[in-house]
Amino acid sequence: MGAEHLPSNPLRDPADRRLPRIPEPCALVIFGVTGDLAKKKLIPAVYDLANRGLLPASFVIVGFARRDWGDETFEEMSREAAKSHARTPWREEVWARLAGNFKFVPGSFDDDEAFDKLDATVDELRITHGIVGNAAFYFSIPPLAFPTVLKQLQRTGMSDNRQDGGGWRRVVVEKPFGEDRASASELNELVDRVFTAPDVFRIDHYLGKETVQNIFALRFANAMFEPIWNSNYVDHVQITMAEDVGIGSRAGFYDDNGAARDVLQNHVLQLLAIAAMEQPNGFEAEEIRTEKLKVLRAIKLHDDLESTAIRGQYTDGWVQGRPVKGYLSEDNIPPTSTTETYAAVQLGIQNRRWNGVPFYLRTGKRLPKRVTEIAVVFKEAPHMPFADYDTKTLGNNQLVIRVQPDEGVTVKFGSKVPGTGMELRDISMGFGYGETFTESSPEAYERLILDVLLGDKTLFPDAQEVDASWAVIDPLEEFWKGTKPEPYESGTWGPAGSDLMLQASGRRWRRA
Amino acid sequence: MHLKDTTTGDIMKALDGLLHEVGGGSSLALNLVALTTEDEREEVEKAASVAAQEHPYRLILVIPRDLEATEPRIDAEVTVGERLGSAEAIILRLDGPAAAHLSSIVLPMLASDIPVVTWWLLDPVRYGLEHELRSFADRRITYSARAADPVQSLFRRAESYAAGDTDICWTRISLWRSLIASAFDGVTQSVESITIKADADDPSAQLMAAWLHTRLGVAPEVVDTEVERNSEHLPAIASVAFTMSGGETMEVERTADGTTILRQAGLPKRRQTLQGRTLGQLLAEELRHIDPDTAYRKVLDTFQEHYAGIKA
Question: Where does the Glucose-6-phosphate dehydrogenase C-terminal domain start and stop, copy by copy (chain A) (predicted)?
Answer without folding.
Answer: 217-510
